[in-house]
Specification:
The protein is of the alpha/beta class. Helices cover about 30% and strands about 25% of the residues. Belongs to the RecA family. RadA subfamily.
Amino acid sequence: MVEEMTAAKADNRIRFVQGSKPKPITQVDTTAVGRRITGVCEFDRVLGGGIVPGALMLIGGDPGIGKSTLLLQVAAGVSERYGPVLYVSGEESAVQTRMRAERLGSLSNHLFIMTETNLDEIAVAANAMKPALVIIDSIQTMFNAEIPSAPGSVGQVREATGKLLRFAKETDVPVAIIGHVTKEGNIAGPRLLEHMVDVVLYFEGERNYAFRVLRAMKNRFGSTNDSGIFSMEEDGLKEVVNPSVLLLAERTHDMPGSVVLACLEGVRPLLIELQALVSTTVFGMPRRMAAGFDYNRLILLMAVLEKRVGLSLANQDAYVNAVGGIKIDEPAADLAVALAIASSFRNAAVNSQTVVMGEVGLTGEVRMVSRVDIRISEAATLGFKRFVIPAGNVPGLKTKQQGLEIVGVRDVTEAMEAVFV
């Protein structure tokens, strides 16, 4: 009850931006607004070309995934180009932050570290410094002394975000805040938090794998269709210019259960090896497991293979893995998963020069996917010659490269006939 009353009072105190008189939108001057390049190209790509002055950005992700590492590298890049950057840490001491910056090679005389959780003290320091960027690590540790509740509570997080939003809009200083996530993968705190900010970024990946993916879930200043791919190394995050090469580097050729998928990570084409292992179960109920692919989608595809194709999978364990720790969340992976399962079940390999893409419906039909041309172009540059795609995509293909074999299929049965000889 105390929390709800406090939060209600806080709403009345928050004034996000200064008022202004109405004027035609065509008279709003944007000539002085220029994006700030961070030097971390993958980060700039996701934002749409750099940081917009006055933007409030929220970066979320699992613990230990590299959020603080990413923003510390961004801070160093901005400080070298545009002047002082204020990095506020509520979770580490100044010595610990310095040690991490040394390891990352991100030391700069223009990068200022402040260990503080009181928003009023942070505001005083930021107004005096006039930095090119403010980074808050993390929003759950910040508090407003006027609210008698613990840091991280709903009222505190909302009030802290409101104050930072007002500071960003009034001073044109961009602010990046790190947010913790819940066990469900959502950013901790009220949903209002994501509505208040201008940009919401999610940093994803498996801690046991090197790859990290930065996705924009909300971006008022650019597209949300792009993504950045990084590799976590001993000396920090490295940008991955051509991830397909690394993801396929250890692929074994002509092995049953292995299929190459051309998927999209945002608008970027990405080639991933999908592996499936199907074996007779020794349990009362067969096991199905998926890594990097939706479990419910796997169950659906196995039902389609059994009902529409006639594969006897009722007493088979099935395991599917997207190699490299990449999470696939687009339906274009359906056909590749289905063929990998069929390949393992039949113990018949799919040709190593074949790339597969297509959505599978409940009747077994193969549906069209988007941006087929850029998927094919990416695969062709890596030496792939044969492509199994939905028949509906064939008439609209613009690819003019010579020596490519395009096979259009209408259903899963046709796809199996095309890949198994």
